[in-house]
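Protocol step 4 of 6: record predicted structures for both targets in the notebook before any analysis. Target 1:
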Amino acid sequence: MPSPLVSDLRLQRSLLRRFAAKGLLLLVLFLTLDRLAGWVFLRGLDRYYGMDVPAQVLCVGHSHLVLGVDKIALERELGVPVAKFAVEGANTSDRLMMIRYYFKRQPDSVRAVVYGVDAHAFTGAGLSSSSYRLLFPFIADPDVRGYIRRYCPSRTEYLLRRVLCTPRYTELTLSLAVRGYLKKWTNYKFGKVNVEVLRRQIEQGNFRRISFDEDNVRQFNLMAEFVTTRGARLLLAYIPTIDVFNRAEPAKFQRSISIFSGLASTNSNIVYLDYNTPLEARHDLFRDRVHLNREGQKELTARLATDLKRVLDDPALVRREQAHGRAN
């Protein structure tokens, strides 16, 4: 007959084994649910951004383009699938990665890339320094993973989202995933800018200054090269900003414009679409100094649809696509 000490040890070992088995079961269950939730969220996000279909037009930008372009109206006017890979806070570097990722997912479909620009396209300050987090849902892709590792300052943050799926999503990306399942691509704001208040703010120096960060310029040029060497036309679409704001730093403003127009003048695959000049003085179209309201979105989308029809019908574009197809 075993001694009481031996019996106690056996009982403790049995309890530990049961505890370990239950812990392992809970861990497996947690990881399974995490993977399942991540798969569901990613499918919704893919649908919202338009990655689940081979779009002929890809719109890329940050909040200016989010509120400035109506994806559904654009598709209706063009009669072709349109992807709108745009999210508030995305900087120049993020947008290059977004374009690379979309072309990787849909390598042969994109005929035109609409890239939202404005006078602050090269300004370093003003956008989130943690905007790389917008790409966490796509971390399974090796290129996106490398991009995030380069910009993520915290190894713990990176490893957590590398291992687990659900922490990759913020409140914003979760809401976009839900909108993808609901097929709700409308995105606009009502209201009109108070021009007098805006004028006083600018007089007091309370506005975002234009600057030309070298890395942003480099990323922008890399983006232009990437798009144009893949058989697609690049459309630099100036999403209007209100004239009162544009006149705050006129010399810098004109320098930005000259970069866009100059690039288009030296490359036949690049088109500069100046929507600012005809719309900047129409104050009723603006929600604030840099964002359009619903009426502004309708006006801009109609103009963009007209220009895109001309670009997509261009025989030269068809010839480039054929040549690109043979090269591949």
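Target 2:
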Amino acid sequence: IENPENSHKESVFPPHPESAYLTSLIPTPTQIQKNFLDVGVGSGILSIDAAKKGWKTIGVDINKKALKMASINAKLNDAQCRLRYDDLAKNQEENFFYFCVANLPFEPTPSQKINFLHSNGGEYGDKLITEFIPIIERKMKIDGVVILPSFSLFKNNESRIEKHLKELNNSCFMRGIVRLSRPLELTLLSSRFEDSKNVYNYLTKEGYSHFVIDIGLLKKTNEESSFI
């Protein structure tokens, strides 16, 4: 695995098995449901798949190199994708999207460590996810669906993303979790750091020794909703 301390942090995340799995979750749009948002476009695989299925696709990223690669890949695949430089889709139109996949960085990254833009999720791995949820709520149409994949820290039979969704107040999102894995050893999460065996000591001191693969599911409603 490439070490960010010896390469560009703007490197583009290549398609992985998880990327292929996420494409399988993108449905064919109805005549009404047309606008699709891909947040963290990377190589462009999700935007391209959505466009080929018939969605009007917008892909956003803060990595200009990723946007360039996604543009090339879209042309190679004859896919019509609008690609825009944007931080967490803050500048996108409100009440516009029917479906969104946000494959955001979720790798816990100690504050003193260097990590790729595509993987740095802050000290607990969920910094961008928690920032993104109130933003995307304003961007989705009623009944619009958001998919949030995450490798989430786990303790007391609960992941951090699950706990956050349960505690989310004043939200019009119906919220839930699909768990795709058993609890996995924290040391499996990253081998990017030279001292990977000890790099997460600050997490183990807080009781985090495992993570799980969770997908957060959000559906916008007309009124304040809850976790199900």
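Step 5 preliminary note on target 2. The helical segments are 17-24, 45-53, 64-76, 127-139, 160-167, 201-204. The two ends are 37 Å apart (CA to CA).
Proceed to step 6 after PI sign-off.
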